[in-house]
Amino acid sequence: MHVPNTVYHYCGADSFLSIVKGGHLWVSDARKTNDRQELNWFKDLAFQYLEMHSKSDKDIKTVFENLDFRFELVQGISDYFVCCFSEERDSVPQWAAYAERGAGFAIGFDVNALRIAIDAPLFDSRYSVPPGQSGSEEWSFARVFYGVPGAEDEQLKHLRMLIDIEPLFTDKDASTVAWEHIDRVCAFCKHPDFQTENEWRIVHNATHSAMRGGQSNDGTAEKRWRRGPYGLTPYFETPNITGCITEVVIGPACIDREAPEYVSKFLESVGVNAKVSVSKSPYR
């Protein structure tokens, strides 16, 4: 998986001020995003894949039946909260959708510094923790992938490999192995219609946090509430990320010539050392 040095969080002016002054990002309920199939997309792809293979493999048929029961009646998908970023530094669709139609900002974050600040492992391309890397079990960080229906992509092939092999080396049965992988990847898979976003995301697993008594390892996992574009939205705050900010891009609709100076003085006033630049997009 290619890892960029910087990812950008597009936001409006109010959110920009809140993030920079407060030093925290908000991870919001993943079911309150602009993707109606958020969290379910990879589950649906995996179920289609396993159902197809179950017709010729009795072991896969058993796994498929157990998974259906577990997801529908026992546990379901974990309660995930996300904060989204893009690899794109100056993207018209991002300005239009997430930054007050270009009147907002794109905050650039150093990827490695951000991962360390939130104590999150940086997942590899199979959404597993790479050897030698550690971090909280409640926070994770990775690139989103865009699953195409009917395509036996890397994620589905990896799922099949885990089902076949992992039970041989652990005390987990194949259905548990499959559920854990599907549940984890659900937090990072989106419909292919969104692939122009080139998204990365921080993910907080609130189900895991609740099992630990409602607090994450850093004590920040206190559920809060805000008004979102799709109604009342619960969210959590990340640990402090002020030191991870490396750049602020001013949106193309901010036509005030003094905007770079104002933003620079604001950053200086709160102790943030970051490059300030202006979008070159013709969008307005």
Give an account of the 3D structure.
The chain is of the alpha+beta class and 284 residues long. It has two domains: 191 residues, no CATH class; 76 residues, no CATH class. 36% of the residues lie in helices and 21% in strands. The chain has nine helices and twelve strands. A six-stranded antiparallel β-sheet has the order 5-8-3-2-10-9. Strands 1-4-11-12 form a four-stranded mixed β-sheet. A two-stranded parallel sheet has the order 6-7. Strand 9 and strand 10 form a beta hairpin. Helix 2 runs antiparallel to helix 3, helix 2 packs antiparallel against helix 7 and helix 6 runs antiparallel to helix 7. The protein is elongated.
For the terminal residues, how far apart are their CA atoms?
34 Å
Structural class: alpha+beta
Strand order of the largest sheet: 5-8-3-2-10-9
Radius of gyration: 20 Å
The helicity comes to: 25-40%
Q: What's the order of the H and E elements? A: EHEHHEHEHEEHHEEHEEEHE
Top keywords for this entry?
284 residues, alpha+beta, six-stranded antiparallel beta sheet, four-stranded mixed beta sheet, 9 helices, 12 strands, 36% helix
Summarize the structure.
The protein has nine helices and twelve strands. The chain is of the alpha+beta class. A hairpin with a 2-residue loop joins strand 9 and strand 10 (about 230-235).
Q: Secondary-structure blueprint of this entry?
A:
Elements: E1 6-11, H1 13-22, E2 26-29, H2 41-54, H3 58-74, E3 80-86, H4 92-98, E4 105-110, H5 111-117, E5 139-143, E6 145-146, H6 154-169, H7 174-186, E7 189-190, E8 199-205, H8 206-211, E9 224-228, E10 231-237, E11 245-250, H9 259-269, E12 275-278
Helix pairs in contact: 2-3, 2-7, 3-7, 6-7
